[in-house]
Amino acid sequence: MKILLDEIMYKKNLTVNQVSQMTGIPHTTIVDIKNGHSSPRMDTMEKIAKGLHIHITDLFDSEYK
Known about the structure:
Elements lengths: L1 E2 L1 H7 L4 H8 L3 H8 L7 H11 L7 E2 L4
Antiparallel strand pairs: 1-2
């Protein structure tokens, strides 16, 4: 499963700092998820989706979606 946070941030023209402020998730965590160094927990995915006003399923790509 691929996390699409980097692509979503690019499309919405958002910086890491902006996403951090919108979601309440630490800057370093956003960077790790964005760069594929960390797989977010479901509660983190929910915070990102809520903060970015998107569906949680928009955050990942999977053939089982």
